[in-house]
Design brief:
Radius of gyration: 29 Å
Largest sheet: 6 strands, mixed
Strand order of the largest sheet: 9-14-13-12-10-11
Helix content: 25-40%
Bound molecules: beta-D-glucopyranose
Number of helices: 22
Distance between the termini: 51 Å
Shape: globular
Length: 748
Amino acid sequence: MDIEKVLKELTLEEKSGLCSGEDFWHTKNIDRLEIPEVMMCDGPHGLRKQEGESDHLGINGSIRTNCYPSASALAASFDRTVLQKLGEVLGEECQAENVGMLLGPGLNMKRSPLCGRNFEYFSEDPYLAGELGVSYIKGLQGSGIAACAKHFAANNQETRRMSGSSQIDERTLHEIYLPAFEKAVKEGKVRSIMCAYNAINGVFAAENKELLTDILRDDWKFDGIVVTDWGAVKDRVKGIEAGLDLEMPGGPGAQDKKIAEAVEKGELSEEKLDQTIRKLLKFISDTKEQKKVGCKINRKVHSDISLEIAENCAVLLKNESEILPLTSTNVVFVGEMAEFPRYQGSGSSHINTGPVIGAKDVQKHGVISYARGYNSNSESYDFELAQEAVEKAEKSDVVVVFAGLPEKFETEGCDRVDLELPLNQNQLIEELAKVNENIVVVLHGGAPVVLPWIDRVKAVLCMYLGGERVGEAAVDLLFGDAVPSGKLAETWPMCLEDNPSYLNFPGEDGKVKYAEDIFIGYRYYDRKKMNVLFPFGHGLSYSKFEYKNLSLSCIEMTDQDILTIEVDVINTGNYRAKEAVQIYVADKNSSVRRPIRELKAFDKVELSPGESRTLRFTLDKRAFAYYEESIHDWFVESGEFDIEAGASSRDIRLVKTVTVNGTKHIPITFSKETAFGQVLKTESGGQIFSRFLTGSEEFNDDSMGQGNTEMMKAMMLEMPLGALVSYGMMSDQQLREIIEILNRDQQI
Ligand code: BGC
């Protein structure tokens, strides 16, 4: 398409019309200029393509298609290849269904485990979420389908999701809530971003110029389109000014007319509107060019991929006495979720996949005895159902309880109120544990729960929301036909009250203070040295892995250099299995508050028993930097950093240290209020003022004792420069001149 030519031929009405959709799922077509429509549909873990009645909450029907594990499960794979594969497969499905853009991945951070939509998000860690998001995007876009990273930004709860304001400081926004999107743009080259419903510090995302233009386009060089979340537009003209391109859904509610009126009245420049139209035309034209005709899908093949992915995502949380994999077939499956597993979440991502087979009906290992045990749609303990389960448990070698969060507990549109499983399920597990000491629990659900019976069961296998083949995946993992290799992409706290956002979730009066700032997830629990139920990165295997020979390419570097890390991983167990190795960076002597450690690299490797592999990772400046508000940029403070290779954030196996010298300088403006200690750190400050510490009589008076001298020095370092005048050590004029010199030296 010759974009400039088309632009010239478009009328003002047509231009403003292109700024919203034709209906719920299509952009507008303009036949006379051969501008085709583009269809989009929800993802992210399958296609919710609606052909009849449309909605954005998963209420009406959609085409029958494959359902894959949802994001919280996918993240636990810690495996980029899994995400890339899923992206490719979804891309093929979109091509076959004539869909040009899939609305995903969801890149929001898991600030609180209560967020009703956590099942659609990857992690509490921005690096992990970003890396996995990039792989998904590359897979999808490699198949010619636009991805749409959502919901930009700071959309971390469902309470007041359409009107609330997330109150976040600059450092936290940049360090925690933006990096996954930044990676999606810079490394994933994502073609579309969906702006969130909520406001950030009082400005709605759909009208937020700082986010949509200054950060997204100017800093990150995003050249795709920004589409609204469905119905997120408040003031359409402000949206255009801020950098919002496409309003969705279109139709009668859309506000195109206001755009044309604003141009006619001179309130909006036509050039500004043209910038939006150029982006939209490019998007439409690229989508058309990448359309593949005649694509056909083999649903069975895709279903097998869903199974393979689910097996890669499951997390073995506990496995006492190596009760898993099961060796006996005198096993009873208990719990309605063995019959009707929960395999996906509710809301706009809901996939119509047809009947799903539960573990009880898989029968790969013969017919397994079964007792329903509880009703999923009720919380009250059913004595009859429980009694049947207890009787069967008494006669079995092992009891496998399928438990989890029922659908109504976690959904788009509302948050959970606690971390509890339904009471009847907890009570049933306690009763079963009284009659059989070999209890295994298989968990379904999109987010952490608390497990009051954890000490009375031998194993817990978390399937998360594992997609349409979750039942079979669970059976394969239980019996050792597949080996668990998932690792938690989020901390499971001991109790809700331990979570750092607890006192500020979900906020008041439509405002939520992100008061825990950068300390979300393990960044908080580690800093506070708190016990957790299961740490970030945790996940067991049926095999065992040893880490050896951690080596760094250098012991000293500048922040412009690349550090190469190598570590050997050896499978010392008896199963061919996969291990996700995690590399954390710990700033040993930071002058600002920083987490104890942060994930900065990871890789997953599959090894046969006895096999070893050397894994190689690279770290650049960003792995050592924090976001420094005074320069509005990333900054590496010179010092020592530990490079840790771990099997989880609380299972660090090897450590080496590197010294990194920062090359950027933070300019300080000196004043009478500047602390003496801060001034002494600068070269000229040191020269001018060190005599006050070394030369003054008090500090050299032996009779004061060493302790007191040190105390005096410490007090001095905290004193403002102005105190030198107050205590008569120099005149006001002298201090002013010195401050002038100090500030001048800073400029050089
Ligand atoms: C959700 C989006 C979704 C859109 C379209 C909204 O309610 O927040 O994630 O893509 O609906 O269904």
